[in-house]
Amino acid sequence: MNTKKALVISGGGSKGAFAGGVAQYLLEEEKQAYALFLGTSTGSLLVSHLAAQQIPAIHKAFTSVTQEAIFSNNPFIVKRSGRLSKIKINHLNVVKNFLRGKKTFGESRRLRELIATYVTPEIFEEVRNSAKDVVISVANFTLNTTEYKSIRSCTYEDFLDWIWISCNYVPFMSLVIKNRYEYADGGFGCIIAIEEAIRRGATHIDAIMLNTEVQQLNRMRSRNAFDVLLSTLDFMGDRITDDNIKVGELLAKERGVKLRLYFTPRVLTTHSLVFDRHEMHQWWQEGWDYAQLHAQSR
Fold first, then answer.
1. d(CA 6, CA 97)
2. Which residues sit opposite 145 in a β-bridge?
3. Are 109 and 151 in contact (CB under 8 A)?
4. Whether residue 171 has a cis bond before it, omega within 30° of 0
5. Which of 211, 213, 230, 269 is deepest in the core (most CB within 10 A)?
6. CB of 52 within 8 A of CB of 126?
């Protein structure tokens, strides 16, 4: 059987920096030669550069990004108290968004501009013309299904759209209409695309999951409707994650696929929509260190 290796990266907002560190170790230290790169949400922001071996550029992006670079209308007020972040809803911005006829609390069009800055036409063409494939997962709300978009079947502008769409965690970020369908974050249907990697012929898979392997904290009691909404979305996301991993593990065992799972060794943050460049710089290094420790323990 021919070997076909895949790198799969889950959703996880700002925690994507940790995945970047793990991936850097796998590519630069272990010299893994992946044919497939699959990303959901924050994972979709990483995979093009990883496929093109443009790690310094994506490291710079993940360790310099701010809230202002993501949101064109930020629905959050973030207050720092030491090392802790407290998030409140920005009622004024939310009302402004509704008055403009928008369907979400906030808008993330600046993220689309940021993606275009880093995923250049040169990177797109380099990957598209190589033997590698980069696949992005998105949620089609109109058809109630998950779709997987390959770089090989996209124009440059379409591919940037799919990356952006895959990251749009509604109702806090933009709900996008494309091809007459409503699209949003791929994590609403598939948080980690292990099953899709196997379906595309992967025989060896390294999957980076941006959560701890077992739950390490209990959620605080909700204080308001905003907290309830966040807890609801987090709860559903955790259940989707569990299903993705269980199905992926069973299918890998059935097909004889070698599957290595990488989880975060600790809870990095409970506010993954807060983008603090100092924390993300630390998480990138933690990811690299964790991958090294993981390799030494095998």
1. 40
2. 140
3. no
4. yes
5. 211
6. yes
Burial class (CB in 10 A: 0-12, 13-18, 19+), 95: exposed
* Cα 132 from Cα 183, distance rounded (Å): 26
Are 47 and 58 contacting, i.e. CB atoms less than 8 angstroms apart? no
3-state secondary structure at position 45: helix
Residues 175, 167 contacting (CB under 8 angstroms)? no
Q: List phi, psi (to 5°) of 95.
A: -60, -40
pLDDT of residue 217: 62
Structure token digits, residue 285: 């290094």
Whether the CB-CB separation of 103 and 152 falls below 8 Å is answered with no
pLDDT at position 182, please? 98
What type of residue is 143?
L
Alpha helical stretches, state H, the chain: 16-28, 42-51, 55-62, 67-70, 91-99, 109-118, 121-128, 156-167, 194-199, 225-255, 277-297
Q: What is the pLDDT of residue 51?
A: 97
Q: What whole-number distance in Å separates Cα of residue 137 and Cα of residue 188?
A: 10
Strands 145-150 and 133-140: antiparallel
The token pair that represents 37 in the structure block:
């790169």
Handedness of CA 88, 92, 97, 103 (dihedral sign): positive
The per-residue pLDDT for 220 is: 64
pLDDT of residue 216: 59
Residues near 270 by beta carbon (within 8 Å), at least 6 away in sequence: 217
Parts of the chain with a pLDDT under 70:
1, 80-85, 216-222, 298
For tokens 């009302």, the residue is: 95
Q: Which of 111, 127, 214 is nearest to 165 (CA)?
A: 111
Q: Which of 270, 269, 281 is nearest to 64 (CA)?
A: 281
In angstroms, the CA 144 to CA 189 distance is: 9
